[in-house]
Amino acid sequence: MNNPAATNVLTSLASLSIKMHLPVKWAIKKTVYEQFCGGETLEETKLVLSELERFGIGAIIDYGVEGKESEAEFERTKNELIHIIQFAAGKKNIPFISCKVTGLTAFATLEKLNSRVELTTAEQKEKDALYGRMFAIAGAAADAGIGLFVDAEESWIQDAIDDLTFELMRRFNKQKAVIFSTPQMYRHDRLAFSKRSLEDAVQHGYILGLKPVRGAYMDKERKRAQELGYQDPIQPDKAATDRDYDAVIQFSLDHIDKIALCAATHNENSSLLLANALNDRGIAHNHPHIWFSQLFGMSDQITYNLAKSGYNVAKYLPYGPVKDVIPYLIRRAQENKSVSGQMSRELSLIHKEIKRRGI
Ligand SMILES: Cc1cc2nc3c(=O)[nH]c(=O)nc-3n(C[C@H](O)[C@H](O)[C@H](O)COP(=O)(O)OP(=O)(O)OC[C@H]3O[C@@H](n4cnc5c(N)ncnc54)[C@H](O)[C@@H]3O)c2cc1C
Question: Is 214 in the pocket of ligand 1 (CB under 6 A)?
Fold first, then answer.
């Protein structure tokens, strides 16, 4: 993944080979899959879960299937998510699960909802089915005492996802934050959005769940905005994304009684900023409203050190059949391909430590 050209060729080949049913599953499974996923089934994740638990690290289980298109597949995803909640219930080390709305309805339906035009009878039926599925999942999570992260996706379906997430929070976050929405701080409008979200929480009397991320679809967003000639929703540069990410952390801490925060990031400065701010403000490391999270297979140096210092920290752990998690694996490969990326930083830290130990 340190080699951008190789990453581009291999990710394209991997998706093509899977589409053509070529026998490449074993190669993917032995390489990127093992690095980033917990197993093909929920049962298979048990090994990773107990290893994380040994170090006081929780897991956010994610059924890594997305981009499905049929009613039968959406129902299967819903049932699998409820199955994960039942599996997680009563287990201290699985505080959250996460879901992608694109696993529960067609992308075209979300685009339609996003445009806020009047729906046909068939489209209204699809919307009702999606809301029915999400309310069933959220209800099961609330009953089991498990949090539910609603992942953020492309900006041109995100309003539809946000509308649904607000409805869920108004219903299920009255006593504690069960539902978490995901502002992508690489968008220049998300700091204002996060502030408006708090206004909604105050108005409707619920605890706002926020899981800020920087955002995983930058190239796609910029390309589409350019092709269709609308204003790029992405910040002008990385510094602006970093500034808004850190601002949303400070904003959440300013309102810690009304906001539950999960800082989902591998950025060392942002993680340190939050860890230090808790100390400065005299907030307990394990305050129930403050979580840190990194993806499984990335930034262990942050996760394990935070856990060791008593902070609430959880790894985002996807599982699912190899062919279904390919889009997730491609996003990970793409975001790690630059030499300034996370993987390079981690590798150099490992090399430094090996040298220090004289191994
Ligand atoms: C637990 C967890 C859950 C996640 N859930 C989601 C999710 O629901 N939706 C989602 O989209 N992503 C999600 N992500 C991925 C996340 O959005 C980032 O892609 C990834 O974490 C890298 O950002 P970083 O904060 O770790 O740090 P860094 O490595 O410091 O930042 C890299 C990020 O900065 C931004 N960036 C880079 N260059 C520029 C530039 N020139 N201009 C503006 N911005 C730039 C991009 O977002 C890039 O990914 C999740 C990540 C974690 C850890």
Answer: yes
